[in-house]
Specification:
There is one protein chain. The N and C termini lie far apart (58 Å). This protein has one domain. It has four helices and no strands. Helix 1 crosses helix 2. The model has no long low-confidence stretch (mean pLDDT 76). With 115 residues, the chain is an all-alpha fold.
Length: 115
Amino acid sequence: MRVINGGFQNANESFHAVLWNLAPKYRYATGIVIDLCAAMAVLCYNDGSQAIIRFITDITGGGGGYYTRVAMRRLDESCVYAEHKKKTKRTKETFDSLHIIDDDTLDDSFVSGAY
């Protein structure tokens, strides 16, 4: 699957990374926990971290709370910022690589004082 900016990404691997961050493979988890983590991973992967607030509200029967909303918003903003930094760095590296002059490609037919 080709994504924006000329990169490649396997969507399945990306989703699994989100899932296994919530329920690591090295820890035992019941099927219910894996199901909950899978639901949360789908929400995060598709709609961002703020989508979890509805999920928390349904489970707890109450609102997520002020700090929960702040934390989820900050998570989304940090993901966007990290992606922006990565894109900017990649663009700069590409631009710099296009402007490198290799000394081997220069014409050595005239060198001052050689004749």
